[in-house]
Amino acid sequence: MTRKTVRIAMNGVTGRMGHRQHLVRSILALREQGGLELADGTRLWPEPVLVGRREPALRELAGRYGLERWSTDLDAVLADPATDIYFDAQVTSAREEALRKAVAAGKHVYAEKPSATSFEAALGLARLARDAGVKHGVVQDKLFLPGLRKLSRLIDSGFFGQILSVRGEFGYWVFEGDWQEAQRPSWNYRTADGGGIVVDMFPHWEYVLHELFGRVRSVQALAVTHIPQRWDERGKPYDATADDAAYGIFELDGGAVAQINSSWTVRVHRDELVEFQVDGTHGSAVAGLRTCRLQHRSGTPKPVWNPDLPVTHSFRDQWQEVPDNEEFDNGFKTQWELFLRHVYEDGPYRWDLLAGARGVQLAELGLRSSAEGRRVDVPEIAL
Ligand SMILES: NC(=O)c1ccc[n+]([C@@H]2O[C@H](COP(=O)([O-])OP(=O)(O)OC[C@H]3O[C@@H](n4cnc5c(N)ncnc54)[C@H](O)[C@@H]3O)[C@@H](O)[C@H]2O)c1
């Protein structure tokens, strides 16, 4: 068995996503399982180089996980021929410049979403990577969640008949930061720093809708800032300039209509932090992060509207749980494995910078729809 070391420059690993999901739950988890075995028997051994702005934080992180390489000098890491892949989980506003440098240095690139802060920049990155001939990918983790994989399985089985509509409910209460610390970084609530729930969540909704139900043809959104003042990591008040809730309607190829609420100003009265209800002519399902429940037309009760009578049964109990039937690994790790196979085995991979640009496009058009108070068409894009 041959072992091939793959050196991955990981930028933004001191952040929430970079640290937990990408470094620990993906790359270190891959090492724990002995690397990634390719079809020809070669084992890929990922070797992270932690990249960031603060040397002490990187040193501490490297020490904690027994890693040997870290650097605050991105240019030097990219200039090093031993670096194979550049990964970016920095704040969104810092991503484009770093990805451009990495592509210019001939590295394969993999990045968190959104891939850039504007559609023009995101499409530009996709073209740049294509012209440079490097492999590229953008995180689309929700597709690999157990709940959505079960939903996808139902779609493939023809369970729904014709899909009519999708109702998505995403969100939870993000504390303002005064009397209880906020559980998300403050840059998310400042437009100038790349924040806003539309920019954050519409890229996810684009690929979820596109892959499962059909390309988004038009968007109508209302983006609002419900809470105009918040308190940052140092306890200082700041103006929350970015939208913290968005109410969107999306028309899809194939005729289904999706309606998704995204909010950091909602208290959860749901089973999971995101849920999608899909209604079709033959059946319906509600999928969350992990679970999926269904109701077939043959088991659909016949509710009769009568507010004078109390409801004597539980509507929720009339749904059936979709079984796991397989082991679901962490979604971020699954996508990392597919990306590494794409780079080293030329395996199929469609979650690339062009797909990432579609997400940014939907966010941009969603914000335009909100600002102009109208429905906006979403043109198909090509490189
Ligand atoms: N896929 C997902 O589900 C998901 C979820 C949350 C966030 N994200 C994306 O991941 C990225 C990081 O988000 P996060 O929540 O981990 O953020 P975070 O604030 O926790 O981490 C940001 C990282 O970027 C670094 N950084 C570089 N330049 C910076 C600057 N000028 N100011 C502040 N930090 C800077 C920080 O040191 C840190 O390592 C964002 O692009 C976000 O959209 C994706």
TrEMBL record:
Signal peptide positions (record): none
Parts forming coiled coils: none
Q: Please give the Pfam families that the UniProt record associates with this protein.
A: GFO_IDH_MocA, GFO_IDH_MocA_C3
Q: Which residues form the GFO/IDH/MocA-like oxidoreductase domain?
A: 149-285
Q: Provide the Gfo/Idh/MocA-like oxidoreductase N-terminal domain boundaries.
A: 50-136
Source organism, top-level taxon: Bacteria
| InterPro entries recorded | Gfo/Idh/MocA-like_OxRdtase_N, GFO_IDH_MocA-like_dom, NAD(P)-bd_dom_sf
Q: What is this protein called?
A: Oxidoreductase
Q: Which source organism does the UniProt entry give? A: Streptomyces lasiicapitis
> Which lineage is the organism of this entry classified under, starting from the top rank?
Bacteria, Bacillati, Actinomycetota, Actinomycetes, Kitasatosporales
